[in-house]
Amino acid sequence: MAARVIKALCIGCGVCAQMCPHGAIAVLVKTASVDSMLCDECEECVFACPNGAITI
User: Fold this and answer.
1) What Gene Ontology molecular function terms does this protein carry (predicted)?
2) What domains does the chain contain, in order, with CATH numbers?
3) Rounded to whole angstroms, how far apart are CA atoms 14 and 10?
């Protein structure tokens, strides 16, 4: 299962996208989006998100 973004908590800051070593996250229209084909569940984005908007 890939990372998921809790849209109600995401502020679109882009920190998760910067921390993702696989380029699996993009910020589109002020909300992060995860490409499940690229995500390897490393949890870097989970730890990086200042709002706790990403879960695995």
Assistant:
1) iron-sulfur cluster binding; metal ion binding
2) 4-55 (3.30.70.20)
3) 9
